[in-house]
């Protein structure tokens, strides 16, 4: 993940955070554990898939989680969270993705009100 630009990483992070609950995951090991759980869930669903297309879909998803584990997604997420403590990544790790989006939007609204007043 070192060669991935910040905007690209944020896109990847948003997508992953949409599928995996990263609330309270402040260490690389905790994030990696969640990725492994998600991968295992995809592999279980692949075995239970009724059609070949469903099976292929779950196989691709499991391979994606493997790639994230292999390329250091967790380490980059922790780095980005520490780099910007009020950013979406840090807030997601602290509060969960939906709550983080709400809080950041509230911060932006408050900033606009301060500038007007």
Write the layout of secondary structure elements.
Layout: H1 6-19, H2 28-48, H3 52-70, H4 73-83, H5 88-95, H6 97-116
Helix pairs in contact: 2-3, 2-4, 4-5, 5-6
Question: What can you tell me about this protein's structure?
Answer:
This protein is 79% helix and 0% strand. The model has no long low-confidence stretch (mean pLDDT 95). The protein has one domain. Helix 2 packs antiparallel against helix 3, helix 2 crosses helix 4 and helix 5 crosses helix 6. The chain starts with 5 loop residues before the first helix and ends with a helix. The radius of gyration is 17 Å and the shape is elongated. The chain is built from six helices and no strands. With 117 residues, the protein is an all-alpha fold.
List keywords for this structure.
single chain; 117 residues; mainly alpha; 6 helices; elongated
């Amino acid at each position: 993940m070192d060669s991935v630009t910040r905007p690209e990483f944020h896109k990847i992070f948003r997508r992953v955070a949409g599928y995996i609950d990263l609330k309270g995951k402040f260490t690389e090991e905790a994030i990696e554990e969640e990725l492994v759980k998600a991968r295992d869930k995809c592999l279980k669903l692949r075995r239970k898939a009724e059609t070949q297309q469903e099976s292929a879909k779950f196989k691709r998803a499991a391979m994606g989680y493997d790639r994230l584990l292999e390329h250091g997604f967790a380490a980059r997420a922790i780095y980005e969270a520490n780099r910007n403590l009020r950013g979406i990544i840090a807030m997601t790790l602290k509060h969960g993705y939906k709550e983080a989006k709400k809080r950041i939007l509230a911060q932006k609204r408050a900033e606009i009100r301060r500038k007007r007043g």
